[in-house]
Write a structure and sequence with these properties.
single chain, alpha/beta, Aminopeptidase, 2 domains, 5-stranded mixed beta sheet, elongated, disordered N terminus, binds zinc ion
Length: 280
Amino acid sequence: MNAPPENHPVETIDFDARSLAIWLFDEPRNQTADETAGATRESYGKGEQKALDLIKSVATEHGLETEIDEAANLIMTLPGSEPDRPSIACGSHIDSVPQGGNYDGAAGVVAGLLCLARMRTQNIVPQRTIKLWALRGEESAWYGKSYIGSSALFGHLCADDLAAAHRNGRRSLADALKSCGAAVDRIERGDQLLDPASIAVYLELHIEQSPVMVARDLPTAIVTGIRGCIRHRTIRCLGETGHSGAAPRWLRRDALFTTAELYHTPTGRLASAPARRCNA
Ligand SMILES: [Zn+2]
């Protein structure tokens, strides 16, 4: 940690981190409460926008730089003394599933914001710039695809993804992104909107969504890897007919057996003779 550079304005907003944390969780919950239960912050929808605006205003109030990237995500920045070095990235997603939990995603954004605000208050200037992302559209519940906000940044959304309809059939993902000001043309071309080399590490605080920590009585844990979530709308397993009395199992290409195995085995590691073709 270094002394602040001369062009770095000194802010002295002090705050009680606990009270601010409670407010940062309560206010979005109040504003995005679902009529039935939980919070609903639809990807690229009203609830998500409200939560994003609220986070942005608090970040600005606490002297952080804010910007909206080309995928409509919010970035909050604490500049470092060596801004040319790859930055430290942190954050999480701000959207939720319908009637979702208030802390899923939001916990990572709020934790990052409190850390950066505290560093700002104490005039701590890190060597590397720290960037906090409040990502939009990470939940697959709305358009059938996970990680939209981050995939868009790295050129990983294809035309089919962008044409995907909202769960209610109201509009396409492309329309939703456009309504939030995202650079849909660039996203559709697969342009890389964020250079991975500009980021040294990525840290994300997240609530646990499995029973493991409760079962092991652990208050916190560090996860070094997590299973990805890829959803295929259609999977076809094509087999070949064979004479039931003459063709042994190991020479058969049975679509039903392969389909059953696919449910239990990571794709590409089928033990038995695979069906002729199994694609998504
Ligand atoms: Zn989450």
